[in-house]
Amino acid sequence: MAFLEVKDLEAYYGKAQALKSVSFNVEKGGCIGIIGPNGAGKSTLLDSIIGLTDWRGQIIFNGVDLHRLTPRAIVKLGIGYAPERGNLFTYMDVKDNLLVGAYLAREKIDENLGEVFEMLPRLEERQKQQAETLSGGERQMLSLGRAFMTDPKLLLLDEPTLGLAPIVISRIADVLENLKKTGITIVIAEQNVTFTMTHAERLYLLERGQLTMGGTPEELRGEEYISKTYFGV
Q: Does the structure show a pLDDT above 80 at 231?
């Protein structure tokens, strides 16, 4: 059994269907990428896994069916989420934002906080600074660090490079590679195909709410449609 199994997933916003029969698996310790254009349903897919949408089908994590579980219960099972929109408490400082992420993993606060500061030393430098004063890259790092504070076994990353300068993307890439070494299972949803191909072991193309293609980075790089649409070749 795969660590995360998504089968025939359909998600809705009211009567509008956002995902249509989406199916894929992630093995324990693996890193996969969901690529596709803006509005394809990537965020909706991650929101569904964490319990934030009205969905049908099956999502099974580590042998547990997530249907009808609350987001709190899902996080407690070991799923962390760093959303694109960040959802930071801008009036709170960096350290307090991180501690909010630890509310279901209080027994490991010091250990996890130490690891976050080791991976993201910028956050340690800015730990007393209000989140609203951070740069876009620092906010993304804080969102990632807060997700790690939940002590996740599975980490969901939504557009971790969106709007960031190349030097900041490079720092995020280093953090991602360090996370992979810890054995955490990772799902990345990204428009940045080059970034995702570099770090994920397998990719799925999501367009108009449907998975239209899947394979290793090498396999997808050789697809004419991917080359023309996402690389302009």
A: no
User: What average pLDDT does this structure show over 202-216?
Assistant: 96
Instruction: Please state the domain count of the chain.
Output: 1
Structural tokens at position 1:
């059994």
CATH number (domain holding residue 191): 3.40.50.300
CA dihedral 178, 122, 88, 113 (to 10 degrees): 60
Q: What is the pTM of this model?
A: 0.93
> Residues 47-74: what's their mean pLDDT?
96
- Chain centroid to CA 210: how far? 18
CA dihedral (152, 153, 154, 155) positive or negative: positive
